[in-house]
Backbone:
């Protein structure tokens, strides 16, 4: 199910103001204090002290780059710090750097991680700023829920692999037109091109089908029509041949009754000549008609060849299945209607 929410120009302008205001406040309050190395905080459990110290050194370097507005270098330092220690404050500052690199999806992900342990690892101000900014991002981004149950199918989003089915992918993505494809050997690829608006949520359930399940064939006309035209043409041409044969017979009979020295035309001879001429004219007409019909039938056969087209099983109409039902006390039928 897909729902669409439209954002007016006034709403977008307010969103931009909120983004700028929040970003300015966050940059002024970014975490410059040292990380709480050691202790028994939940985000420190299982992290050796030397790993925590390595993370803090990289964190300080990232802060310096962030103050200098060298955002690419800052993100690089924060990402390296996270490999040593998954600390909420590192996620928070990484989100600040990414905010200036137009990476809203990454910003959302890292702010989500920053608030995962509540306000304690940051402070109440930064915690609330992170939550409000993420709430704003949720209205500016689109949410997709992609599901595929076909074992072994590969599902991609805009050419990037999401998962191998059976599986599910739920995440925020940028608004726009996106291509979601599922493919597997032996099956036809299933593609859904989904335009998504800011704040829209889309649920996509991808199903794969074999060629036999979705390919159908059709003709422009009934199959008998071109064959009938072609058959009629051949019959007419054959009739012309019979008339031609009879015309030749009349002319041969006419010639056989005239001696070498010639003779006067009699009514009988005139009748043979006229019969031969009529039969010959009829043969020519039959040849012309038959030839035209044969050509027309041949063209119709070509135009009426089977053409393949693909159906969408999900959009097929209702199907009714009826089966007999017999037990010891009654007899009847059971019907099932599938929508």
Residues:
């Amino acid at each position: 199910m897909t729902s669409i929410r439209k954002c007016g120009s006034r709403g977008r302008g307010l969103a931009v103001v909120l983004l700028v205001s929040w970003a300015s406040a966050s940059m002024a309050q970014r975490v410059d204090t040292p990380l709480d190395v050691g202790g028994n905080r939940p985000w420190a459990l299982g992290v050796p002290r030397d790993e925590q110290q390595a993370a803090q050194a990289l964190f300080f370097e990232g802060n310096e780059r962030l103050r200098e507005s060298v955002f690419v270098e800052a993100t690089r330092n924060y990402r390296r710090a996270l490999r040593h220690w998954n600390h909420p404050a590192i996620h928070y500052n990484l989100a600040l750097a990414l905010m200036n690199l137009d990476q809203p999806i990454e910003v959302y992900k890292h702010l989500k991680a920053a608030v995962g342990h509540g306000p304690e690892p940051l402070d109440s101000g930064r915690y609330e700023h992170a939550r409000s900014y993420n709430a704003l991002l949720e209205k500016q981004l689109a949410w997709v829920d992609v599901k595929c149950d076909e074992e072994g199918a590969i599902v991609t989003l805009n050419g990037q692999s999401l998962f191998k089915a059976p599986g599910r992918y739920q995440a925020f993505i940028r608004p726009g037109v996106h291509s979601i494809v599922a493919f597997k050997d032996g099956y036809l690829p299933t593609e859904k091109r989904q335009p998504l608006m800011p704040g829209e949520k889309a649920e996509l359930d991808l199903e794969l089908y074999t060629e036999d399940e979705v390919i159908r064939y059709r003709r422009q006309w009934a199959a008998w029509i071109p064959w009938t035209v072609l058959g009629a043409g051949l019959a007419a041409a054959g009739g012309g041949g019979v008339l031609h044969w009879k015309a030749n017979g009349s002319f041969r009979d006419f010639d056989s009754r005239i001696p070498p020295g010639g003779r006067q035309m009699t009514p009988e001879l005139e009748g043979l000549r006229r019969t031969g001429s009529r039969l010959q004219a009829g043969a020519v007409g039959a040849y012309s008609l038959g030839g035209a019909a044969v050509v027309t039938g041949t063209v119709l056969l070509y135009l009426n060849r089977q053409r393949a087209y693909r159906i969408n099983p999900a959009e097929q109409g209702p199907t009714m299945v009826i089966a007999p039902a017999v037990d010891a006390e009654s007899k009847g039928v059971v019907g099932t209607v599938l929508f």
Q: What stands out?
A: DSSP finds nine helices and twelve strands in the chain.
